[in-house]
Amino acid sequence: MNKMRKINIAIDGWSSCGKSTMARQLARLLNYVFIDSGAMYRAITLLFIRNQVDLADVRAVEQALQSINLQFQLNAESGNNEIWMNGENVEKEIRTMDVAQRVSDVAALKQVREFAVAQQQQIGQGKGVVMDGRDIGTMVFPDAELKIFMTASEDVRVSRRLKELQQKNQEITVDEVTANLRMRDHIDSTRDVSPLRRAEDAIILDNSNLSPDQQLGMALEWAKQRMAS
Ligand code: CDP
């Protein structure tokens, strides 16, 4: 595999359809860097909540962004890339429902997107990156050699996210998770600045009835084809 060319892989799709899980596994197999772009929007949202930033106040938003330093660092124990904000590991705190309720409004702001996309593009300059999000194939890496657009039925997505949150001891109901996914998908796909949509050259992967291993096998095959060509 070493003789193959390095590529960038863009994975986009609806909320909670397993993008990060697949992207992380794929990056590990290829020895690539995995970047969860959603974690960046969630971390920014966390800071905005803590500092009570008024989203309608453009200057306040700009000032808050100037004070944010985001970094991904490998956790040697788990082997995962975790997000740090201003020197603090916020990986756990960004996954709460409080953040999930507000993140799409924050991510719809032009200044926020410019801030995050610039960093994402810099990370991808040297290739060898698997990044998941909403606008990776359309905006961040429009030239990515492999683009995958993931989707799954709403039932499947809700039950996966519910299980994930319950494992983290968060008290949450099916109705709350369903409402949150619907709200985020609506805001993400209707916002003015780089809305969620499938890039024309993205492969659609519906994983409603696929196991993690099955979907990983398919993505790995596509990646190998692109790396060899
Ligand atoms: O993992 P999940 O599907 O719940 O979402 P996420 O990847 O953690 O992203 C959280 C939110 O960040 C999304 O609902 C979007 O509002 C926003 N986001 C975005 O606008 N653009 C991206 N490239 C990634 C996330």
Report what the structure shows.
The chain is α/β, with parallel strands linked by helices. The chain contains 9 helices and 8 strands. The chain has helices spanning 19-30, 37-50, 58-66, 97-107, 110-123, 136-140, 154-167, 174-190, 212-228; strands spanning 8-13, 33-36, 70-74, 81-85, 88-89, 129-133, 146-151, 203-206. The strands form 2 sheets. The protein has a 5-stranded parallel beta sheet with strand order 2-6-1-7-8. A hairpin with a 2-residue loop joins strand 4 (81-85) and strand 5 (88-89). The longest helix has 17 residues, at 174-190. The structure holds cytidine-5'-diphosphate. The site of cytidine-5'-diphosphate has 16 residues, from helix 2, helix 4 and helix 8. Cytidine-5'-diphosphate (CDP) binds at residues 15-16, 20, 37-38, 41-42, 103-104, 107, 133-136, 184, 188.
Detail the topology: elements first, then pairings.
Layout: E1 8-13, H1 19-30, E2 33-36, H2 37-50, H3 58-66, E3 70-74, E4 81-85, E5 88-89, H4 97-107, H5 110-123, E6 129-133, H6 136-140, E7 146-151, H7 154-167, H8 174-190, E8 203-206, H9 212-228
Parallel strand pairs: 1-6, 1-7, 2-6, 7-8
Antiparallel strand pairs: 3-4, 4-5
Helix pairs in contact: 1-9, 2-4, 2-5, 4-8, 7-8
Cytidine-5'-diphosphate is lined by residues 15-16, 20, 37-38, 41-42, 103-104, 107, 133-136, 184, 188.
Summarize the structure.
The chain has 229 residues and is an alpha/beta fold. It contains nine helices and eight strands.
Strand arrangement across the biggest beta sheet: 2-6-1-7-8
Q: Count all strands and give the number.
A: 8
> Which bin fits the share of residues in helices?
40-55%
Q: Helix-strand pattern, N to C?
A: EHEHHEEEHHEHEHHEH
Structure annotation, total helices: 9
Alpha-carbon Rg, integer: 17 Å
Biggest β-sheet strands, sense, barrel: 5 strands, parallel
- Give the overall silhouette: globular
